[in-house]
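Following the same procedure, backbone shapes were mapped to integers, yielding the entry below.
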Amino acid sequence: MRVILFMVCAALTGCTSSPDLHGNDRGGMIEWFGTNEKEVFAAATGHCAKYKKTARITDIQAKAGGHVLFECS
């Protein structure tokens, strides 16, 4: 339930596009370009929710050309 609530709140705050995400049921990577941390966490949370798992951010390189790594558990 918290996952759905967070995603709705993120959508209402003006997120117009989702970050570029590559992943599977174990986790993934989100490319960082003009993205903020709320958008990144919402994208990871939504991705992991498809597999009935929760997201955990493991690495953030918050710069142009950087990335965010996450695990689904």
